[in-house]
# Entry
Amino acid sequence: MPKELDYYMLYLQKFLKETGNDLMDDEEFISSRANLAGEEYENVRRDGASVAIAQESAMAVLMNGL
# Structure
């Protein structure tokens, strides 16, 4: 079964590689952070926020501390 593409995971992987961050090979960190961002997006949308606001909130979770 092919692996599902995940926008947040791909974005974070690209960012970490481009910046030479030591976490670029930490698959557990990347997967966990991408899942948190996806959950944030879903929760914010469920609360009635626009797509743009939900995306902004998810990206804040994804990039927190980086």
User: Anything to note?
Assistant: The helical segments are 7-19, 27-46, 51-63. The CA atoms of residues 9 and 31 lie 6 Å apart. Residues 27-46 form the longest helix (20 residues). The chain has a mean pLDDT of 93.
